[in-house]
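The data are quoted verbatim for reference:
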Amino acid sequence: MFITRDDLNKNLYAEIINAITRLDETRETYGIRTAEEKVKSYLGGKYDLDFIFSKTGDERNYMIVDTVANIALYIIADVLEQMPVTIQNTYENSMEYLKDIQAGKAILPGVPEPTNPDTGEPDTFIRYGQPDNRY
């Protein structure tokens, strides 16, 4: 997995995560994997997912680590009767960031733009008139 429990603990107290997941140990893994897939679905048309998600430790892009952790915490905490405001707010902010990346209003710092597989040059080609349909 791209993020670990330690990454979740940076965004929320470990005791709270333990309390939420104590009845279902697989909930944490499910939340992390689902969050990773959600982020990949937003970034796949814009960035090289292998480049982003193959990194480990301090080589990982901190914006992506934080975004995946925020979404994972939201998924994990979804079993609660009332969603904590801090989890709700960070989730909404992370989703807005992903939507901005997808719309071209934001970038991922330190992650190269997609390149044309034939020339290796930056890829500005828009297929079928849709900016989201890059190859």
In short: The helical segments are 5-11, 14-21, 26-43, 49-53, 62-77, 85-103. The chain has one domain: 5-129. Residues 5-129 form one domain. The longest helix spans residues 85-103.
